[in-house]
Write a structure and sequence with these properties.
The chain is about 30% helix and about 20% strand. By secondary structure, the chain is α/β, with parallel strands linked by helices. The chain has 2 domains: about 150 residues, Urease, subunit C, domain 1 (Roll); about 325 residues, Alpha-Beta Barrel (TIM Barrel), CATH 3.20.20. Helix 7 links the parallel strand 14 and strand 15.
Length: about 500
């Protein structure tokens, strides 16, 4: 059996909706009870459906309640639409599926520093909302979770909590005295000393109906002890007995090969110590293993020192805690980065990660999408996902290929591709309307006009005009085009979580 067949399909319940409650000038209380129209027709839109196919021009997408009812060529004949349809003229706009992040973290950063005490319900909810603010409608919290995440997932199912739909990788399994080197509470990580302990940890996580199990296999350039193969082999074997897929933090090619041979379902980072070789590529294709590049992980170590003009970008400002923004803008920040001896390695790692992404994708390996956002102060939820798209294009993917990884491919990774991840009849109405086409410029994913989540529409927090003003002010500097922002708050109706079925 291939690993791809082991990844369960966690089907979202059919009776779900999100109320998008977000105009800056209006309070949530004014917008909580807005009902869904029976039919909405978004007319004259350019459609990028998430499958990798070329954009379709002058399309009408008909939304019925929470789902997409039809996709057809736009016509001046209103009689072709169901009676009572609310029509929206989206001329000049582009529709893409909502983004999916298959490698993020929640409530690990307090302002400008990691904080083991920060993982509380209000902070988790705030970050789920932040992801949703940026058009990231589903996210996998890939380890370092406390058990309260399951209460939040249950409350999302009951319709009592908003935010991006959360998938869970429980606490995760690390190494005594080793990775992950992030401050955490005792109930946020397992650190088994032997294979038997590892199996018991997996069984305990599976009893909570986790969506994934996470392992860390990395010695951080020889600084920490590394998880031994017999430990992660036991984790993978026991997890698969419980019908739970396994994702691995990885850095080195040799470890990636051993993990794939042991049956891991997802490599959660790029191989960065050297080029991937045909042996790994063929093994991943044989087993159906997913590969998540997380390019922005290394890029953010130096991006804001290299390009301080980005710190005036409203898209970045909205995503950044005040204490972290002050740190990044401080007079000594650039000097501290320039003098940091580890930065040269991060620059090399980013270039190797780009090379390996290109090799993997062109060889036919299943490439997903994730950022490690939320793990450290520099990896900003929401902002990171749009930056990752840009970096994937810099690595050699086309904009449509990068979007395919972030939508349909990731829906397959999470097992929800029959519910979301593409714009198609019968699937949930989860999509973004953009000013401009990301097929022409991937930076246009940031020019969000509206966000649609299970049929409910909301407006962006930062307008396209504000984004254009920032771009104009930065026109005389050399900077990545990272402008744009959006914001959303939602109230969820019953049945919209990623709760895993019982084994």
């Amino acid at each position: 059996m291939s690993n791809s067949s082991r990844i369960l399909r966690y089907v979202l319940p059919s009776a779900s909706a999100l109320l998008l409650l977000l105009a800056p000038a209006r309070s949530l209380a004014q917008m909580v009870t807005a009902p869904l129209p029976q039919f909405t027709a978004i007319e004259h839109v350019r459609l990028i459906d998430g499958t990798g196919r070329p954009p379709q021009s002058n399309v009408t997408v008909v939304v019925e309640g929470q789902h997409i009812q039809a996709i057809r060529a736009s016509t001046p004949d209103a009689r072709s639409l169901p009676p009572g349809t609310r029509a929206i003229d989206a001329s000049g706009q582009t529709m893409i599926p909502g983004l999916i992040n298959a490698h993020g973290h929640l409530a690990l950063v307090n302002g400008a520093a990691n904080d083991a005490s920060y993982y509380t319900e209000p902070h988790v909810l705030a970050e789920l909302r932040q992801y949703e603010h940026y058009g990231v409608l589903d996210m996998l919290s890939l380890g370092l979770n406390r058990d309260l995440i399951y209460l939040i997932r249950a409350q999302q199912t009951a319709g009592n909590l908003d935010g991006a739909t959360v998938f869970v990788a429980d606490r995760g399994i690390g190494v005594p005295g080793g990775a992950p080197p992030i401050p955490h509470a005792d109930d946020q990580l397992y650190a088994p000393k032997n294979a038997d302990e590892a199996r018991r940890d997996v069984d305990e996580a599976a009893s909570r109906h986790t969506n994934f199990i996470k392992v860390w296999v990395d010695d951080l350039h020889g600084k920490l002890p590394k998880m031994q193969p017999e430990i992660y082999a036991a984790v993978i074997d026991e997890a698969h007995k419980q019908h739970v897929p396994v994702a691995a933090h990885v850095y080195a090619l040799a470890d990636a090969k051993l993990l794939v041979a042991a049956g891991v379902d997802v490599l959660g980072h790029s191989v960065r110590d050297q080029r991937v070789d045909p042996e790994l590529i063929q093994a991943m294709k044989k087993h159906g293993t997913f590969y998540i590049p997380t390019l922005e992980l290394d890029a953010t170590f130096f991006l804001f020192a290299d390009h301080p003009e980005l710190l005036n970008d409203p898209f970045l400002i909205r995503a950044t805690p005040a204490a972290e923004l002050a740190k990044l803008r401080s007079p000594g920040y650039k000097a501290s980065v320039d003098s940091d001896p580890t930065i040269a390695q991060h620059r090399k790692d980013l270039e190797m990660a780009k090379t390996n992404l290109r090799l993997m994708y062109r060889a036919g390996v299943r490439v997903g999408f994730g950022t490690d956002s939320g793990a450290t102060p520099l990896r900003l939820p929401g902002y990171a996902e749009h930056l990752e798209l840009q970096l994937m294009v810099e690595a050699g993917l086309t904009p449509l290929e990068a979007l395919h990884c972030a939508t349909q491919n990731n829906a397959k990774l999470l097992g929800i591709d029959m519910q979301t991840g593409t714009v198609a009849p019968g699937l949930r109405a989860n999509f973004l309307l953009l000013d401009g086409s990301p097929a022409a410029d991937i930076a246009n994913t940031r020019r969000i006009v509206s966000i649609w989540h299970n049929g409910h529409a909301g407006s962006p927090w930062t307008t396209v005009a504000q984004q254009d003003a920032y771009k104009a002010s930065a026109a005389n500097t050399h900077a990545p085009d990272v402008a744009g922002a959006t914001a959303m708050q939602t109230k969820r109706r019953p049945g919209t979580s990623a709760a895993a079925p019982k084994p």
